[in-house]
């Protein structure tokens, strides 16, 4: 009996030792769970928060000046300008004929204000070429004639003008310029006044022009422009037909002064 008890005690002791040793062995053989995944999950928002801020040019709008915006105008720039245009005929010198005989009197042409569209391209930093397109309606009268003051009629003038300009301060916000050019003007929608004038014709004309002005960069690619042109041209008009009894011919040094101010955009 003593021997059996001793054997049983030894077996019990062995089982207890095995039960204690098993978890320890399992702890030694089981791989340790890697924690970088948890670490990455925690650091990811921090990494996003520490990302470099976007450049100001990334959200540059139409009416913003950004780090990539060119200052001033220069080679390769193309501009479209919309201006309010004032056309002021000077009527410097007039000559009138009635049935072929010279008579005293002068021609008077009214001033007008209309919108103007201009296209300009810079060949170099200093040299540009531009084309203006506008049409203005003018009333024409003969003043101080032997027949009194004669209301001749009206006509629309279309004087496209090409100008070659020199810009003094390229790549600066304020950039004044001077230019020389040429104008070719023709008249459309010509309407006789009636009464003494039953028929009216106005001939195509043209001549040289000079101009001065400046561009000023407002914001981004938007500029403000002021421009003054002096055109030199003569107008030739005929009222009625030959043999009608009141065939009137007129030559007038129209020489309009053209002043405009407007907004332009660089492409």
Features:
single chain, 267 residues, alpha+beta, 8-stranded antiparallel barrel, 5-stranded antiparallel beta sheet, 2 helices, 52% strand, OMP/PagP_B-barrel, OMPW, OmpW family protein, signal
Explain what this protein looks like in three dimensions.
With 267 residues, the chain is of the alpha+beta class. The protein has 2 helices and 16 strands. The strands form 2 sheets. An 8-stranded antiparallel barrel has the order 1-5-6-9-10-12-13-16. Strands 3-2-15-14-11 form a 5-stranded antiparallel β-sheet, with no helix packed on it. 25% of the residues are buried.
Question: What is the mean pLDDT?
Answer: 83
**Can you give the helix content as a percent range?**
10-25%
Low-confidence parts lasting 5 or more residues at pLDDT below 50?
1-12, 16-33, 37-45
User: Gap between N and C termini, in Å?
Assistant: 112 Å
Over the alpha carbons, how many angstroms does the gyration radius reach? 44 Å
Strand content: over 45%
Query: How many H/I helical runs?
Result: 2
Tell me the number of strands: 16
Structural class: alpha+beta
InterPro entries: OMP/PagP_B-barrel, OMPW
Protein name: OmpW family protein
Signal peptide: 1-27
Keywords: Signal
């Amino acid at each position: 009996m003593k021997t059996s008890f001793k054997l049983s005690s030894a077996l019990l002791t062995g089982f207890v030792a095995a039960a204690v040793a098993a978890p320890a062995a399992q702890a030694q053989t089981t791989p340790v769970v890697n924690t970088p995944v948890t670490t990455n999950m925690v650091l990811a928002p921090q990494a996003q928060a520490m990302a470099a801020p976007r450049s100001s040019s990334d959200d540059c709008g139409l009416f913003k000046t950004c780090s990539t915006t060119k200052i001033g105008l220069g080679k390769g720039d193309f501009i479209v300008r919309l201006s309010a245009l004032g056309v002021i005929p000077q009527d410097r010198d007039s000559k009138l004929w009635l049935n072929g005989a010279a008579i005293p009197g002068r021609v008077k042409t009214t001033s007008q204000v209309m919108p103007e569209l201009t296209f300009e391209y810079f060949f170099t930093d200093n040299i540009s070429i531009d084309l203006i397109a506008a049409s203005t309606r003018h009333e024409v009268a003969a003043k101080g004639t032997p027949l009194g003051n004669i209301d001749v009629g009206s006509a629309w003038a279309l004087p496209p003008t090409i100008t070659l300009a020199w810009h003094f301060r390229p790549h600066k916000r304020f950039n004044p310029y001077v230019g020389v050019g040429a104008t070719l003007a023709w008249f459309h929608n010509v309407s006789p006044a009636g009464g003494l004038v039953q028929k009216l014709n106005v001939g195509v004309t043209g001549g040289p022009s000079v101009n001065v002005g400046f561009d000023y960069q407002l914001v981004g690619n938007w500029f403000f422009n002021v421009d003054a042109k002096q055109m030199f041209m003569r107008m030739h008009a005929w009222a009625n037909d030959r043999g009608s009894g009141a065939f009137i011919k007129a030559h007038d040094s129209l020489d309009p002064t053209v002043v405009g101010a407007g907004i332009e955009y660089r492409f």
